[in-house]
């Protein structure tokens, strides 16, 4: 599933476009016990409930594809009788009317979901009449197929914060009652996937709110698929490879900044040469080598980084766009601008010093004193010669042409 296909499903989740037939769920406490089950005809919900549940479903389709939304594929054994894919097929085909299947599904999540606290499991059933689209994305008034799917969302349920409030019954301000409130979904999935605007029973789209710590146990044990790294995890792994090999904080920051700049240029070039292409650019091991050499990394470090990269990303090399870190890019631009400014200041200082030196050479006598000393300097005729007289206090230090010992002045009778 790509961004357009996700948005197509998400944009339907409105009062006028929503076609959810059923919504089921259960509330689970911190002891992993089901407190309550419910089964609703979605379109019969009260308006407030309707919009709240609709918002939860939309959240399970939010975020970035490849980071918050991961397409996972079922292995062959899970598509056989008794496999997880076959179970999900049965759940979908039951249109959420089979209580036994629902109970099994809830228990599967409860047994595997690594979460300490109360939460709500929600399952929606939908049948989307997919309209034919022309090459310019205009819809035709005819159906290609009916995309039937289930959407699952798991939401944390937490206590509101303690505080004071108005107690209407006793007409006073006092401690308000704390309520258990359903939050935005922490994780979820859609089955089957909606690939090329069509049903794809060999894949599911997994959602995670936290891309740094996704609940991979659900991918593995509820969906039966191999865990997949998010873009955030891939980015972190890639940067850790660089840090561990270079082992120099300042050099690492510089190299990572330059790598980010190169990755950004690759994406920009792809967008310029093939703006309509939906094929992602993969960062191969050879590409990593080329970028590192361009960044001035030594040959032995390039080999170590390349070997570690191949080891960490052997199964699935990351998409270039997924590795781009906008914060690092911005910081790198800032550092480059600062470096240019420092270089300009150094050039100006050198020019200024050269100018002072040149000016000094044009005079026989050059004085450099503290600002507060200037008012004490006077000119005086001594033995018919114009002299500059500078009073020197006992605690003041003097230096003439690099000499701080002025005893040589006493040897000259003219200064006695």
Report on the architecture of this protein:
This protein has 416 residues and is α+β, with helices and mostly antiparallel strands. It has two domains: 3-228, no CATH class; 233-324, no CATH class. It is built from twelve helices and 14 strands. The strands form four sheets. Strands 1, 2, 3, 4, 5, 8, 9 and 12 form an eight-stranded antiparallel sheet that branches. Strands 6-7 form a two-stranded antiparallel sheet. Helix 6 runs antiparallel to helix 9. The radius of gyration is 36 Å and the shape is elongated. It holds the Pfam family DUF4317. This is DUF4317 domain-containing protein.
Task: Please write out the topology.
Blueprint: H1 3-10, E1 20-28, E2 34-41, H2 47-59, E3 69-73, H3 84-93, H4 99-112, E4 118-133, E5 139-159, E6 164-167, E7 172-175, E8 180-182, E9 187-191, E10 193-195, E11 198-200, E12 203-208, H5 216-221, H6 231-246, H7 249-273, H8 285-294, H9 299-312, H10 320-323, H11 326-361, E13 378-382, E14 385-389, H12 407-410
Antiparallel strand pairs: 1-2, 1-4, 3-12, 4-5, 5-8, 5-9, 6-7, 9-12, 10-11, 13-14
